[in-house]
Write the structure tokens for this entry.
Amino acid sequence: MAAHLEEQQELDNFKHFWKGWGRWLFAVLVIAALGYLGYTMYQRHQVTQSQEAAGVLEQLVTKAQQKADQKVINADLQKLQENYPQTIAAAQATLMVAATEFDAGRYDVAAGHLNWVLKNQKAPLVQALAAQRMAVVKLQQKKYDEALNALNTPVEVDFEPLLLETKGDVYVAQNKAKEAVESYEQALGKTAKDAAARDLLQMKIDALK
């Protein structure tokens, strides 16, 4: 009998608790469940977006290899940029087309593509590559201040040597040997001891001394 009364008391206590707090507790659980569901759906959406973007990129690369009309390639690129702006595939395609435009001497068009990458892509490697290539475009146009400004783009430590070396190249073009050596030496100091790039950097330094 005592056990029965104890169980009844616990049941009454639970009913009292649920009456006072049950609705709020249920609401919290629902919110948590919806949050988890939203996160899961977002993750699936990201995967789907990446897969779809990769498919468009593959088509674009195939067309480029087949020497398709640049308008056709640009149409695929625009599709990637508009529909999948945050994907790596969009960045790859834009960097590729920028390189094609650079090789064709259409520097302003190449710069426009690189600007798009810098504004829409946050992956550290992509940011570093876009900044370095932007500087090369501006260097080719003899817009040295703009080239140096592009190289001031904040990047992760691992990619600083790439930008510092290019900064040295800009100074060389300006006949600023002292500044060039300083940039090359900074790049050398940040480059891994076993990296092949060290030899080229050292050659550039020696050539200016």
Summary: The two ends are 100 Å apart (CA to CA). Residues 132 and 199 are 20 Å apart (CA to CA).
